[in-house]
Amino acid sequence: MVGIDIEQTKRFELMLKKFDKKTLHRIFSQKELDYCFSKKFPHIHLCGKFCAKEAFFKATNLKIPLNKIEVLNDKNGAVQIYVEDKKFNADVSISHTSEYAVAIVLCKAT
Fold it and tell me: Which residue range or ranges hold the 4'-phosphopantetheinyl transferase domain (predicted)?
């Protein structure tokens, strides 16, 4: 199965001004937040990770909380999805500009 999502990065820039850490933790794990906030424009990277989570939902039809899905980069920068700390068998690609982020998730057969 495949899923894709696109979002405006501005939405996440506004979210960072509006929400506290508790609210962010409902969507993102601490590892995801640490990665994104290590970047010059964290809202763009948060948007990309959110898109990957939404694409994952579309590809799998799983109904689990957003913060139980982690979109992490390995040491080479490749994006991996973890569901409740277990690596999910999927290919993930995230791209972004200053205005939009997009992600696609392709679930592999097990």
Answer: 2-105
In whole angstroms, what is the distance from residue 95 CA to residue 4 CA?
Answer: 11
Is 24 within 8 Å of 63 (Cβ atoms)?
no
Assign residue 84 a region (left: φ > 0; alpha: ψ between -120 and 50; beta: otherwise): left
Can you read off the two tokens belonging to residue 80?
């991996």
49 vs 28: CA distance, rounded Å: 9
CA angle 78–51–49, rounded 5-degree value: 45
User: What is the tens place of the pLDDT at every residue in 17-45?
Assistant: 988 888 899 999 999 999 999 999 999 99
CATH code of the domain made up of 2-107: 3.90.470.20
Q: Using an 8 Å Cβ cutoff, are 88 and 81 in contact?
A: yes
